[in-house]
Amino acid sequence: MKVIAIDFETANHSRSSACALGIAEKTDNDFCSEQYLIRPVPCEFDSKNINIHGITSDDVSDAPTFAELLPQLVPKLNNSLVLVHNANFDVDVFCCSLGQQSLPCFQFYYYCTYSLLKNILPNLQDKNGKQCYRLNFLAKVFDIELEHHNAASDALATLKIFYKILDLFNIPTAEQFFQTFDLRTGIVKCNNQQCYNVTGDDYDINDSLVDDASRTRLYKKAKKISIQDKTQHYHLDWDKIRKTPAAYPLPNFENKRFVLSGDFNSTTRQDILEKIKLFGGIPLANVSGKTDYLIIGSINSCKPQSKKSNKILKAEALQSAGGNIKIISEYDFWVLIHDNHTELQEAIQKSWIGRASI
């Protein structure tokens, strides 16, 4: 099944005032996107909307209406999986912009990446500690270039974010992803002068389509899709997670002293030592009163008191005496590196659970 992403901009508060449509798709070797300007009917622009996207009535004076553009869009949309970041807005704009004219017969499935990210990464927060799934924030998180409120750029970012998620879960295709987590899509079906929109869990990709006997646009309340439990024990690709580009400045370990103890499950000791030096830290061989962090390999972290290494025992003694040394696991070390990246912390945690069950 072809996978594309779309994004609308509107001229005013009305959902039937589409003035730009962005469509993005993935080719064999790369991603591509294009923007279509649309002349809304009536062609009335609010200053608030112009300030958001920069499109004016002059820009669309020679553009087609949505009805005139639709035949050009149908080959891209028909039977495709369409990704949208906030389906409540973009799918509704699509349906409302169709008007009452005679429509070609076509259908497409859609899925909301906003809902997807909210369920996969329930604790994703911005630097102010607020839960955030805005597209411009997600673009920073996943290191994706974005010209926000340019319809083509927004659609492209939406598509790239979806494929980043597939990559993190090491799942090659959208079909396999939806099957793995039993996700349901919405569906839009157009036939003559009727447009049917069924949302959420009412239909999946393999279900029969909307009943042709219906005479009004259907809006069924979407059931909340929660895949958090299903992803909790899924084996993520550890290396891909650790190599995901950072959205915020790298950690600063300048003049912080680190000591390692034991054997490590996630990577080699050398890899951790290189990370410490890369971020300005100082690796040391032995624990002292000047040590800031003792990193304990997971293979040693569950040992009873009598079998703890001398480094661990000395660090615990320093802590009891009021020292500032921190004793952390190798998992805590990766979280420390990604201290500002809550989404990576979530992914690391899930990957850790998966590795522990091997």
Automatic annotation (TrEMBL):
Residues 253-330 form the BRCT domain. CDD domains: BRCT_DNA_ligase_like. It comes from the Bacteria. One of its GO terms (cellular component) is cytosol. One of its GO terms (molecular function) is 3'-5' exonuclease activity. This is BRCT domain-containing protein. It comes from Candidatus Avidehalobacter gallistercoris. The lineage of its organism: Bacteria, Bacillati, Bacillota, Clostridia, Eubacteriales.
